[in-house]
Each structure stands twice: as structure tokens, then as C-alpha cells.
Amino acid sequence: MIKVGIVGGTGYTGVELLRLLAQHPEVELVAITSRTEDGLPVATLFPSLRGRVSLAFSDPAKAALERCDVVFFATPHGVAMAQSPALLKAGVRVIDLAADFRIKDPEVFQKWYGMPHAAPDLLREAVYGLPEVNREALRKARLVGMAGCYPTSMQLGYAPLLAQARALVDEGHLVADCKSGVSGAGRKAEIGNLLAEASDNFKAYAVKGHRHLPETVQGLEAIARRPVGLTFVPHLLPMIRGIHSTLYARILPGAMDTDFQMLYETHYAHEPFVDVMPPGSTPETRSVRASNYLRIALHRPDGGDTLIVLVVEDNLVKGASGQAVQAMNIMFGLPEDTGLRQIAVLP
Amino acid sequence: MIKVGIVGGTGYTGVELLRLLAQHPEVELVAITSRTEDGLPVATLFPSLRGRVSLAFSDPAKAALERCDVVFFATPHGVAMAQSPALLKAGVRVIDLAADFRIKDPEVFQKWYGMPHAAPDLLREAVYGLPEVNREALRKARLVGMAGCYPTSMQLGYAPLLAQARALVDEGHLVADCKSGVSGAGRKAEIGNLLAEASDNFKAYAVKGHRHLPETVQGLEAIARRPVGLTFVPHLLPMIRGIHSTLYARILPGAMDTDFQMLYETHYAHEPFVDVMPPGSTPETRSVRASNYLRIALHRPDGGDTLIVLVVEDNLVKGASGQAVQAMNIMFGLPEDTGLRQIAVLP
Amino acid sequence: MIKVGIVGGTGYTGVELLRLLAQHPEVELVAITSRTEDGLPVATLFPSLRGRVSLAFSDPAKAALERCDVVFFATPHGVAMAQSPALLKAGVRVIDLAADFRIKDPEVFQKWYGMPHAAPDLLREAVYGLPEVNREALRKARLVGMAGCYPTSMQLGYAPLLAQARALVDEGHLVADCKSGVSGAGRKAEIGNLLAEASDNFKAYAVKGHRHLPETVQGLEAIARRPVGLTFVPHLLPMIRGIHSTLYARILPGAMDTDFQMLYETHYAHEPFVDVMPPGSTPETRSVRASNYLRIALHRPDGGDTLIVLVVEDNLVKGASGQAVQAMNIMFGLPEDTGLRQIAVLP
Amino acid sequence: MIKVGIVGGTGYTGVELLRLLAQHPEVELVAITSRTEDGLPVATLFPSLRGRVSLAFSDPAKAALERCDVVFFATPHGVAMAQSPALLKAGVRVIDLAADFRIKDPEVFQKWYGMPHAAPDLLREAVYGLPEVNREALRKARLVGMAGCYPTSMQLGYAPLLAQARALVDEGHLVADCKSGVSGAGRKAEIGNLLAEASDNFKAYAVKGHRHLPETVQGLEAIARRPVGLTFVPHLLPMIRGIHSTLYARILPGAMDTDFQMLYETHYAHEPFVDVMPPGSTPETRSVRASNYLRIALHRPDGGDTLIVLVVEDNLVKGASGQAVQAMNIMFGLPEDTGLRQIAVLP
User: Fold this and answer.
1) What is the distance in angstroms between the Cα of A105 and the nearest Cα belonging to chain C?
2) DSSP H/E element including D198
3) CA pair distance D219, D163, nearest whole angstrom
4) Lowest-confidence range among B319-323, D61-65, D95-99, D334-338?
5) What is the helix (H) or strand (E) element at residue D79, kind and residue range?
């Protein structure tokens, strides 16, 4: 049994980790910390866990996380980079669901997250937690910075295109029109995310620049090994879970004959969680609700030079906690889908 | 033109007042105050008002509210009772949408609202703002404490029963099972009202005792001129606007022959905003969405001794701002439906 | 492995059965029938099952259901009673999720369902599928008529009260104010259940008499062994899954000293799926979303003579398919929670 | 008073017309037809109209529409083109909210709508109902084919760009990522639009080709007087009303210095219903909910060569019935905003 600790379990990625880990056959939940909720049974805060998780939150100081095999950080940005060095020194592996170890360049991190990086020396070692791209590196990783929710959908949506030796599309002008449920904003008391504000409503936000932009460009360029230009417009959906990314790319004149469907099916042929749907499909977010699957469908209207890639995922599962468990499975040599075989909840 | 001021226009009853008053043919909006948003154009906070309301929020100190004919308080409890005395002295009429002037007994107020009443001497003068019950008193009122949202639905739902000379139902055991959209909780940053918490979800709350209980019992007893016992269970609906109250009463043996439908139709025959629907109807909240109407339907399953009264209203209109404008119309001698003829938005 | 067939898998209880059974460790899905979708892979209709269920719908004529150990009917009312006799004769056990075998009196069935009963001789043998009440009978049942969604919540909510030797409450005047998500109406193309009609809206329906009334009264009387009078008002919630029943009972003078919390906790002490929450709790439907749990909380405002029982369940799981799998587990001697340990999806 | 008839008032554009026209000071509602609902009071089908609209549906044969000054068709495609010739001959003006008179080329109409055009000779006379583009032609129009909901948002969003003498953007590769509430699908009993299917869900649809594509390209080319290439991907939002179009255009090298904000503000300076918001705004659909306004905001991330135009409208008002009333006002010489000054309902 893998001894697991969770730092910061009062948010949505935290409770989702608890849901998944409490059902994971190879995991023993050892500790969950919260500075503000010390002593409170987890199931009091989240009654969905009543009868299934008997842990109480404990103050970080008392939690003895160094006895864990792995610690997940489901905390605001900045916590993991402060606490990871000590844990790693104690031989504990670390999986951060926040952004602390996603971006390789500490200056870029500082620019977008408004704080200096507290552990820049760890950035080189940190593995970017996107299993379908970085599986080998994850096998022996001590420190993982999990991919963000939007970046997961954009990178897995564009990866088969960009992974080719020569460019098939205008890689300098990718357009990603992304829509996310509000759970992506976290369990924070903000007026804009009240039901009375965000339901029965739709809008774009952060059009000027969203933190997931530099992370995604970094990831896309790592896949392509070429410069990539991306326009990324996130929108807020009046629902809880789910990301739908509508990705546009202009096909280059020399690539008009490409069989993109075949390209994608081949690229993801052996992936347990990536489903390339038949041509012409329109994947729905509910088809992955509460599951770790990500579904992709390709369109090319009138056979023209615009390729459209539709991607859906559950932002809290494949876009966060599920993918983190997937990474853990890889790190500990388990079958990659252990504890992650939940079928999407539909309707 | 009636010169109108609004204190505290940053909440939902405030913006709803603005929507209604900006379309009211006899109203001139003179000032709207906010301590925190001084100088901010109202339409910047609420883009729905762009091009229609050019006012900016002003600090209460600068607002010169004493030049108004009437001032609405759309503030948290406690503000109106502090500021009303000076306004009244200046000859300004006051309509409070909070609870400061609803409850006649200052000790009851203190028990339920956790603060001593700041103007207990005004409580006797204050008129309870429920036009269908208190129309005459409103005509000459200087100070009005508008009825709460749930209390409006319960009182108008039970009034025809209780207004009779002798009891028709077991008035000591009324049961009101009420459901409200989340806008009733106001525009406050609270985790429980986040879309990710409150949508796709339903629950009861405040079962032990909701502040609208003493107000409603006081109102029902004023109508009945007899003691009334009420069990009131509020529930939170996963939607923005609308209250649906399902009211139960046990018919007394001597009243089994009553024609309740006729009783209700007669009672409300001349009301512009109360609609008694045909027997067997099931009113929907959307049938009054964004309008000042309140609809009622009666049921008596199998002709037995249980009477069921279904009541719907928009909690922000008939349950708050619309009813406040209705009270203003009465106070200023206008036709009662002036500026309130909006038809419900459906779908 | 239990060989399982499903008749009528194109509705919501059908796809929910598939979700649960595909993850059940002791089940082999053998056949799923649909008259209209013969040959269509199940995962084409429900993409949530892609990669997990490879079955295709087959015409009932070809399905060879008699080779199954058990057949679930997830069909409209009337189908199971026509097809069960042949299956039972072939030694197949039958679990009907519709109403065909719920009501013992064929005349009552005909009155409420508008069709004569096709297999009245089987009604005596049929076991009512409510495990917490009928566990022993289920162990050896050949034919089970699963409890309805509302009736499950009402019966489990009232059972501890009614199961006592002497009446504690006025059993002739129970009031059940119930609210259900729209999936309870099934996957049928009806205008009233369109998103544009039913979302952002709330209403009561079937106040005159809902089909679940006679079923519930029959069940309550079986528990009480005394006559029971019930007023049942169902309401439609603007959400997909979840039932919240708010149950009212008048405590009899001689029972005012009863410790109802203790009574409920004792009654359900050993139930795997019934959770009696601490006094004063307000259970949320999302706390059981997509899980087989049912949660109960008790209230007695001001210690008076009104007892309020709050009950939540997922209408498609504990109210339908999950409870059917629970019944199957009992019938086949498996641990009762086999394949049913999913934790509720929150948020 | 303008005598108005409505053909086909049982759908969403029909009830929205009724809501608007019943509040219009210069309109007398004379007749509303429905083949299936002859004799049914309109307010029985739509209780939101109780007390405000006393008309009953009448069979088209009896409706004497030729006595009207203008008849609105809120019918499925194909009805208006069959009935308009007789009405026009009788001197009645016709405003069609369906697609019968939108597309100038009858072969294109037939290709996309699957039926031959029944009145191709009227196509040349018919005016395309987009007031901000065709105001002059509308003043004297006898027959108007109102713009579709998506096409309105796309055309008004792109118009200031395309109306310039020389191209500012790559007009051959416009990308419109559009999202609509489900009321756009009409009041039709279809499984895909059930609340249990479409809520808590998001998907693209009709990616291969939506009927609004040829209409929009025709309109854009009329504005530009140059060929235009458009990729249009519609998506279904889990809410009732509102369209949000996210429009992308690649700025041409020679136009990089353009002040696009100024361009848009100038273009729409005198429009009563088009609101160009300050740079960097992110308009919300709720800011126009139930109102005739359309709001636009411009973005140009990092000052690069991608221009993003965000457009919101209420698909049933500015996208359908409100715009039709706006057209009527123009046709009859009324101030353009008569009866259309409703402020958006927020929250």
C-alpha cells in the first residue's frame, strides 16, 4: 500500500483526490492537512465522504507527512514550492496540483504568478505531469508539477499535429477557444462565481492573458521542438465540471492531403484514457463527467484548410486530481488505470 | 416626478430597484450611495444598465439624500434604522427593504437579528409593506418596512383563510414548505452560494429557525386576529430567482364544505398583482420571473381534510424591489401598477 | 459470474444499470435489448460507455435472455409483466425497475396505470424491492418489483417511526413534500422537460394524485401494520439527479418524550447504505449524487409537536438502478455493497 | 395603432413576440393563429401572459389576417413562403422570423433547408431584417426576412471590419466560435434538448455545416462587397437564453496600426441597440438577458495580429422577436426603440 498524504484538502481538487484515493485499492490515506480546519473530520466538511473517509484534517505541523510515500499538494500556488524541499529530502515524492512546478523558467513564473519562485533549483528536476507526453520521465520522478486543466486539453488536442517532423498546420497561429465549468475557479468565496452571477450566463474572461497560456505554449513547443504561437480565450460555463476546448489550426498547403483522423488514432492508439472518436463526432463534456477520460474529435469543414479539434475532459479529474493519481500510478509502477476506471456519470 | 434616492445599490435588491425605477415614468433617480464604490458608475458594476442609468455611486456623506422625496434602503439589516430618523426629520419618506422595520417588538428583533434596535420609537409608526394587507396604512405612511420575500408568499397564501371570522383550518399547525432561488441570499461572497456548491443540488436550511418565521407569524396573526402556529422549512433551489411556497393546512371538521376556490377568488378579486389560478393549477416560478405578479393555486387531494396552497413569486420583484415600488406608488397616490407592468420573462 | 440481461437499456435507468454493472466484479453483461436500436452499439448511444461496454443492443427476439441468470427490466410500465412469466419458467430471475410488480392489488394497479395487469397471479409471489424493509424475502426471490424513487425516500424516511408497536405520530396525516430532479421523468421527448422549460424554474405537479402514492401507502401500511394517511406533493427541481423529501409528522401527545434521533440511529445501525446524520443536519442531494447512499436528518423545531424528516437520495441510484443491483446482490448471496461502493460526486 | 397578427404563436419566438407586443404602446394584437390550438387562450399555454393577453389561438382559416397591418410569422421554415403572397396581395406587410426570406438564392435555400422555395419571385423584394445594416431598405419594405440569431451576432460583430474600403483582416479565414442557449432550438420535444441531457453539459454541434452559415456569408459579403470565408462552429450552452460569439480575425500586415476600438465606436455611434464596450471588456450574456441590446468588446492580445471580437445578445430578443419589433417600428415610422426599452434582467 502506498502511504499518501494530502496538503490542503479543503478545495475541489482536494475533495476529488479524496474521492479517488479512498476508492484506490493500493492506497492508504495517512494524513490530510489544513491550517484552518485542524481536527475537523473530512466527512463533516464534505458529507459525500461520510462512512468512507474517517480521517480528520490535521495542522501541517503535526501531520508527519515525511512518513508518507507520496504527498499531493492541492493548495494555492506557492505552498508546494515552499514545502517540497524538506519532503523530498525526507525521501517523500511530491505531486503538486498547483502551478509551482509547471513552468521551467522562474522569471516566467514570477511574471504570471506574481511571486518569486522559492525553489528554482528544483525546476529542472521537476517533471511536467502530463502522462501521455511525459510517461517515461514520470516513472522515476521524485517531483511532479501536474499539468493545468486547460493546458491538458490543449496539449493533448494539438499534440498529434505538433509531434510530426514537419509542420502540418500554421503553428504560429493556433487558436484555442476554451470553455470551463466554474469548479476550475476553486472553492473560493468570490462574487463572480456565485450561482446568482455565473449560472444562466456565459462570458469570456482573462482574454488579455491567462496563466495557462505560458504553460501551454511551453508544453506545445516541447512537443513540437519548434516555436508555437497560440491565441487562448477561456470562457466560463454555467455548470460545475467539464472543459470543452475548440481548437483551430490552419492546414499548410503542403499538408492538405494528410489523413488527420488516422494521425490522431495512431498517436493515441495505446492510451488508456484518450479516446479519439469517429470522424464528425461532437464530444460532450458529460461523456467524461467524473471520469479520467478525455475525448477528441476532428472536423474539417468542406475539406478546406481549417482543422478543428474538439476536446472534452473533466477539469477536476483528467484536468487535475485524476491525472495526478494517474501520475502516481506510473511513479509507483502500478497499472496506469488503477483506481481510475470510473465510468462517466451520465445523465 | 418623484425624486428617489437609493442607499446601498450594490446588491441584488439594489440593482433590481434600479431596473424598475429607471423604467418608471414618474421617477427621477437622484442619488445612489455606496460606501465602497464612491464614484463608480452604476453601469460599470452592472453592465445591464449601460446606456440607461448614468448615475454613479456616491459616498453617503455627499449624497444629499435629504433632497429626495423618498429613499429606499437596499442595505444589510441595521443600516436603515440608523439613518432613517434624520431622513424622516428632513421630510423624506423611507422604504426599507431590509428587516429593520418589519418586526414590531424590538426584543423579538434583537433575538433574531442579533443587534439591539436603534430606533424602537419608530417601530409603532412604521407600516408593514404588504400592500394587499396594508394598503390603507401605506397611503399615508412616512416609514415602511417592506415584507420579506418568504413572508410575502406565506402571508398572501394564507391570508384568505385566516381573514375569516371563524377558523376554517387548524391555525395552530400550519406547515409552509418553501423553496427559494439563491438570489434571496444576496450578492455576498459565501462559499455555500457558489455555483459549484449550490447548482445541481438541493437542500433545506435554517430548519431550526429562520428570521422570516417571527415576521410571518406576526403578519399572520395580524390578519387572523388569533394566535397562529407555523412550521416553516426553507429550501435552496439551484436557480437564481423565484420562490415557490407549498402551504399545508388541516381543514377543520366544521369547514369541510367551504368553497376555498371561491374564497380566494373573492378575496383577491381586485388585486392587480395577485392571480388566483383555476383549481388544480400548478403555478411555475417562471410564470412570474422578473415580474411583480404572484400566483396562487389551490388543491385538496381527494376532497379530504388537507388544503394545499401553491404560491409563486419572484423573490426580487414581488418579494422585494417590485413590491417596494408598489408601496411607493401607493404612498405617492399613483396608480398602483405604474412602472410595474412588465410581463414575466418566459422561457 | 452472474449472467445479466437488460431489457430496454435506452433510458436513464438503463444506462445507469450499465454504468453500475460494467463496474461490478461479479457480473457478466450478456445481452441488452431494444426494439428500436437493434444492432447499435450501446456506446454509440451513450458515449460515456465508450471503451467500457462493447455490447450492442439486440432485438428482444434474438437476445436469448433465457440464458441469463437474472434479467433487469428498465422498460416502460407493462413490459415486464408481459415477458416475465416466460423468463421465470426458464429459470431466470427477474428484477423489474418499472411499476408492474410493485402494487399487490391488480385493481389498484389498473386504476393508476391505466392497463389491466397481465400477470396478476405473479403479484403474490413478487417481492417488493426495498432491501432495508424486505431483505429476507429478497434472498430467495425469483421476481422483484423494485420500489419507486419517491417511495424509497418516503418509506425509508418514515419507517423507523411506523415500525413501532404503538403510533408515535398522527399516522393518518403524514405530509410528504418531495422534490425530484428531472431524470425521474425518464429519457422521453416531452416539452415540459426541455431545458428551456424546466431549468431556472420550479413547480409542483401531479398534486391531485401521483402513481407513487398508492405504492407508498401500501408500503407504509406494511411497515406499520396499521392504516396510514399520506398527503404527497411532488415537485420538479431544475437539475438532473436527486430527490429531497421533506417529511412532516405530528407527534402524538403520548410520544412527546421520544428520542427520535436515537430511534432512527438504532433502526438503521447496520444498514450499509442508510446514513442517519447528526441532529440538526441538512442533507444535500449532492452528498449522494451518483452513489447508492440515502441520508436522513431529523428536526423538531423548538421541541414542539412537529417532527421533520429530511431524506436525500439519487433517484437513479438508490431510487432505481443502484437499489436494483443491491437487490441482485442479496438475491445471489453477494455482499450487499458489491459494486456499489462509489463515493458521491461532489462538487 | 398598428393591427398585428401572429402566425404560429406556440413557440419561443411566438411567446416572446407576445411579451413584447403586449407592452408595445402602438400595437393592437388582433389575431394569433395555431392549427393545433384553435380556441385555446394564449394565457393558458403561457401562464406568464395571464391577465395581460386575452387573445385565444385561432385556426388560420378563421383568423382574417388580411385585416392586419402587419403579420409576423413565428413558424417553422416553409410556412411564411406559402402564405405570404396572399397577405401581400391583400396589402398586409409581412415579417418572417423563420428562414424563408433570408437567403437570396433559391437553390442555396433548397440545399440547406431541404425544400424548394415556394415563392422565389418574392426573394428579390424581400428585405433582410438586420436594421443596423439595412435600415433604409426596411423603411419601405413590404416583406422582411428577419436575420437569424447567430447571423445577427456574427454580422454585427464583423460589420465594422468588413465595411471598410480595403480589407483590414484576412477576410477569407474568419473564425466564429459561437455559443447559444437552448431556446435557440425552439419549443420542440427532442431528447437532445431535455434538461437531463443538455444541462450540466456542453458540446459543439453541426460543425459540418449549420444553416446559419450560408446566411451569414451572404450577409458578410453584402457588407464587404468582397468574398468572405467563414468557419462557424456553434455550441450548445446549458442555459435558456443568450448567444456569445467569439469572433477571430487575422489582421493584415498593412492594417496593424488600425485603431479598431475607434473604428467600432464610430461605426455604431448612433445605434440605439448596439453597445461597444470599453476596450478589454468581457461582455456577459446576462447583461442583455430579455433585452434588445447587443454588446461588443474588442481584444487584441499582446497587440499581435489576432483580433478578437466578443459579441453577446439575447437570441430570442435581438436575435429574433425583439429585432422583428425593431424592424416593424422602422417600417411604420415609429421611433426605433418604441416598446423595446426593457432593461436586461440581472441577476
Assistant:
1) 34
2) helix D195-198
3) 11
4) D61-65
5) helix D79-89
Q: Mean pLDDT across chain A, nearest whole number?
A: 97
Question: What single letter denotes the amino acid at residue C303?
Answer: G
CB–CB contacts below 8 A, A to B: 68
List chain D residues with CB under 8 Å of B271. Answer: none
The chains found to touch A (3+ Cβ pairs under 8 angstroms) are B, C, D
Strands A243-250 and A174-180: antiparallel
Q: Rounded to the nearest 5 degrees, what angle is found at the Cα of B151, between the Cα atoms of B147 and B154? A: 135
- Among chain A residues, the shortest Cα distance to B188 is held by A191
pLDDT above 90 (res C35): no
3-state DSSP assignment of residue C103: coil
Q: Where residue A63 falls among pLDDT bands split at 50, 70, 90?
A: confident
Element of type H or E holding B330: helix B322-331
CA distance B159 to B136: 17
Task: Give pLDDT tens digits for B28-44.
Answer: 999 999 988 999 999 99
Q: What band does D114 get if pLDDT is binned at 50, 70 and 90?
A: very high
Which three cell numbers, joined as nine digits, stand for C44?
Answer: 454509440
Query: Domains along chain D?
Result: 2-125 (3.40.50.720), 150-314 (3.30.360.10)
Report the 10 Å Cβ neighbour count for C165.
6
In angstroms, rounded to a whole number, what is the distance separating the alpha carbons of residues A41 and C95? 39
Helix (H, G, I), strand (E, B) or coil at A252: coil
Chain C CA closest to residue D190: C189
C-alpha cell at A221: 513547443
Output the average pLDDT for chain C: 97
Strand partners, A275: A295
**Chain C residues interacting with chain A (CB cutoff of 8 angstroms):** 12, 15, 19, 22-23, 46-52, 183, 187, 200, 240-241, 275, 277, 281, 283-284, 286-291, 293, 295, 316, 341-347
All three cell numbers of A232, joined, read 487562448
Q: Residue D249's closest CA among D196, D325, D175, D323?
A: D175
Q: How far B288 CA sits from the closest chain D CA (Å)?
A: 6
List, for residues A124-148, the tens digit of each pLDDT value: 999 999 999 999 999 999 999 999 9
Catalytic positions of B are 149
Angle formed by the axes of helices A131-139 and A322-331, nearest 10°: 30
Q: Which of D74, D149, D276, D294 is labelled catalytic?
A: D149
What's the mean pLDDT in A171-189? 97
User: Would you tell me the crossing angle of helices A149-162 and A212-224 to the nearest 10 degrees?
Assistant: 20
Strands A70-73 and A93-96, how do they pair? parallel
- Helix or strand (DSSP H, E) at C107: helix C106-113
What is the H or E stretch that residue D197 is in?
helix D195-198
The C-alpha atoms of residue D146 and residue D97 are separated, in whole angstroms, by: 5
Query: Across the interface, which of D200, D204, D289 has its CB nearest the CB of A310?
Result: D204
- ipTM of predicted assembly, 2 dp: 0.97
Residue B24, SS3 per DSSP: coil
User: What whole-number percentage of chain C has pLDDT above 90?
Assistant: 97
Which helix H or strand E contains B57, and what residues bound it? Answer: strand B57-58
Cell readout for C280 is 440538526
Q: Which pLDDT tens digit goes with each residue over D258-298?
A: 999 999 999 999 999 999 999 999 999 999 999 999 999 99
pLDDT tens for each residue of C59-90: 988 888 999 999 999 999 999 999 999 999 99
Cα separation, A336 vs A318, whole angstroms: 13
Among B323, B318, B297, smallest CA distance to B308 is for: B297
**Displacement of CA A251 from its chain's centroid (Å):** 28
The CA distance from A236 to D40, in Å, is 41
Chain C residue closest in CA terms to A200: C200
Question: Three cell numbers at D245?
Answer: 460569439
pLDDT value of position A35: 87
